[in-house]
Amino acid sequence: MRLRLLRRRRDGRFELRLPEQIRSVLAESCSGMAAWVAADPDDPALWRLFPDAYPDDPDHAAFYRLVVRDQLQSRKLADLDLIERTAHADTLSAEELEAWLRGLNTIRLALGTRLDAGEEPVDIDPADPLAPMWELYEVIGVLVASITDVLAEELPPEGREDASPPEPA
Questions:
Q1: How many C-beta neighbours within 10 Å does residue 1 have?
Q2: Stated pTM of the model
Q3: What is the pLDDT of residue 103?
Q4: Most buried in the list 74, 84, 104, 134, measured by CB within 10 Å?
């Protein structure tokens, strides 16, 4: 059972149940991530955010980057800005929550790449200089899972992963 960090209200908005410390860390992290995404588009830690669409065709890859890169970057920056602006809000609209999901995923992918995170859980040594990054990576993972769970509640039963298969006709 996952911790319920948010819930859908009857009015369609989503109530955030985050401790103030996490809200502050999120706002700060979004600011830092936005600077990172905007500053160095060729940073290897960001490759997962802007993957090469045509790895075997340098000409097509260059054209794709030229046409799409700025658009992707603008979307990521807008999502991070929205999280930073709404980190201390009590509720979010569905559109804001979807932007949170995208923005948090942006941070998690970049951190995971920088940390060389794999599938296996990591024992975090508090003395490790990377411990704060690992902790942020884990917190964001929990938030992403919570958002996914609450949004999945809106899916019809046949669209849910946990739904039983339909009965044969």
A1: 3
A2: 0.83
A3: 96
A4: 104
